[in-house]
Amino acid sequence: MSLFDWFANRRKTGPIGKERQEREIADGLWTKCESCSVLTYTKDLRANQMVCLDCGHHLRVFSDERIRQLADANTWTPIDEALKSMDPLKFRDRKTYSDRLREMQEKTGLIDAVQTGIAKLESLPIALGVMDFRFMGGSMGSVVGEKLTRLIERGTRERLPVIIVCASGGARMQEGMLSLMQMAKISGALSRHQEARLLYIPVLTHPTTGGVTASFAMLGDIILAEPKATIGFAGRRVVEQTLREKLPEGFQSAEYLLQHGFVDAIVPRTQLKKTLAQLIRLHQPAAQSSRFGVHVAEMAPTPPRHLGGPKTELV
Predict the structure, then answer these.
(1) Nearest-5° Cα angle at 214, 208 to 215
(2) 226 located within any domain
(3) In the prediction, which pLDDT does 28 show?
(4) How far apart are CA 139 and CA 119, in angstroms?
(5) What CATH code is carried by the domain that includes residue 221?
C-alpha cells in the first residue's frame, strides 16, 4: 500500500470533527421566496403576513392563516362547519369523487374549500368567508355555494358587512351542473344583501378564476385585490383561441384589471385589515340629529354593484 492510499483510507475511517458536521435545520424554520429566492426566517415572514421582506412578493396563505390576519384575536366564530359534499353524480376519473374528498379532508383538515364565520375586524363586526386553494384548488361545489349563501343571508339578517376572500380555480367539475348553480344562488343572496343597503367587499387573491370570477368575486360594492394576483375566467390559451387574437402580457393580473376598471384598488396584504376597517367605517350608519332633537341612524349610501370603479392603488 502506498503512502497516498494509507492517508486516503485514514481520512475515510477517521472521526469527523464537529466543524465538518452539517448542522441540521428544523423543517419549516426557513422559507424561500418564490420570486427572489431569498431565505427568510419563517417567524419573521409570518409576522409580516407572509410578504417577502426583501422583494415584497406575496406568498400564498391559506384559510387558517388568513383568518388570523383579518379577525381580531378570539373573535372568530365559525358557522356551518358540519356541511359536507355528497357525490350525487357518482363521478369517477382516476379516482372516485368520494375518495378525493376524503383525501383532501385528511390532508388539509378542512371539510371543504371555504371557511365561513362571524368575527370582528378592528372591533367592527363582520361576516367573513375565506376560500382555501389547498382543497381541490378552491373549487366551488355545492358546499362552498351553500356556506357562502348562508353567510351572506346571516349578514343580511344581522345587518353585517360581508367580506369574502376569494381563491379558486373555478366551479368543481365533479358536481357538474350542481356546481354551476352555486353562481346564481350566491349572486341572488348578494342581491338581497344589496337591497338591504349593506356593504359587500370581495378580496381577490392569487388565483381567482373560473365561475368564482364570473359571479360573486366581481359583484362587490368595492373590489379589492392583492398585488400581482392572477384574476380571470378562462386560461390564456382558451381566450386567445376563442378571440383569435394575441392578448397582451399580464392581461389577467390585478394590475392590468385595475387599469381597465375591473378592480377598484390593489391593497398590499400588510395594509388589508386597516383598509377594510376604513371602508367599513365609511359605510356604517351615521347618527344625525333631526330638527326635533332626536338622533336618527341613517345608512350611508352604498355604491351600486358593478364590474369596475375608480382606478386607485393603495400602498
Answers:
(1) 100
(2) yes
(3) 75
(4) 24
(5) 3.90.226.10
